[in-house]
Design goal:
The protein is an alpha+beta fold and about 160 residues long. It has a single domain, classed as Regulatory factor, effector binding domain (Multidrug-efflux Transporter 1 Regulator Bmrr, Chain A, Alpha-Beta Barrel). It is about 15% helix and about 40% strand. Strands 1, 2, 3, 4, 5, 6, 7, 8, 9 and 10 form a 10-stranded antiparallel β-sheet that branches.
Length: about 160
Amino acid sequence: MDVKVETRPGYHAATMRYVGPYAADGGIHELWERLERWARPRGLWTQDRVCLGVAHDDPQTTVATQCRYDAAIVVPAGFADGVIEIVDLDGGPCAVERFVGKAAEIGAAFANIFAVWLPHSGYQLDDRPVYELYRADFFDVATRDIRCDLCVPVRRL
């Protein structure tokens, strides 16, 4: 486990929401496909795009059918589109772990940060939601692995 505390910027992003289990075989994959179909014709699905997968609920304490997940793509300041919600996500310190693996393993990797790293870190959870940060080259076609940063907002104890 290689977790580092980094100051992450805030993001101005266009988001689409999924409500349901965070499981890899749930509706999250279809949500990302829908976001891509919306973003591509608007010139946002580029080689330098930044996307965020924002988990709003703890699946250990929230009923799976009520867990909220946003697929988001960072958009320029002033960007507006009546079809999609535009939000500002606050920046600040985050526990960050570089993840490489299968989509089904992301939940366990986050759980490991909470259960193993956080209790001995000198930090506590912040009120901001946890998120995955994806760059354009996030998917390895040969291995089918996903590469992203797992970001857990924190503050000092």
